[in-house]
Amino acid sequence: MQIQLIVVGRMKGGFSYLQAGIDDYLKRLKAYAPVSIVEVPDESILPSKTAEQIMEKEAQRLLPYVQKAAYAIALSERGEEATSEKFSGAFFERLGADPSNGGIPSNESGPIIFIVGGPLGLHPSVLRECDWTVSLSRMTFPHPMVRLILLEQLYRAFKIRRGEPYHK
Fold first, then answer.
1. Whole-structure pTM over 0.85, yes or no?
2. Could you tell me how far CA 143 lies from the centroid of its own chain?
3. Residue 106: is its pLDDT beyond 80?
4. Which residue from 25, 44, 150 is spatially nearest to 91, judged by alpha carbons?
5. Euclidean distance between CA atoms 73 and 60, whole angstroms
6. Taking every pair of C-alpha atoms in the chain, what is the biggest distance, in angstroms?
7. Residues 6+ apart with CB under 8 A from 100
């Protein structure tokens, strides 16, 4: 199983303190699946552009990744909320986890991707193309922080799935 986080925008200098945590969880996740982060350029927010125009431009950059994915998961405040246990169960069930493989699916048809939008969110065209829409919280987080939270929850999901200590 290969997992990619497709994120709009670069990690800005003010959030460099998060990089050590991101690196730590990427390292931890290697025991379960290769995980990478792909940054796509964000669209400048200017008074001459509407929110719709900005999100549409970002969607044009995101949709090729969605179309190549074996399974695409969008992160949105309007997505499905779950506890860590429910997220773990739903994540592996939706991917067709095979108990004979330790409950971890293999996906040879493409990566499993998580889409993290820019400050304005994801364009409806991206949400329609994704297989599942998840909310980390109804609260708003800075997008660089979402990377860290998502990686930690993925790590937790694998630990829960395998019955390994960490969760509690």
1. yes
2. 11
3. no
4. 150
5. 17
6. 55
7. none
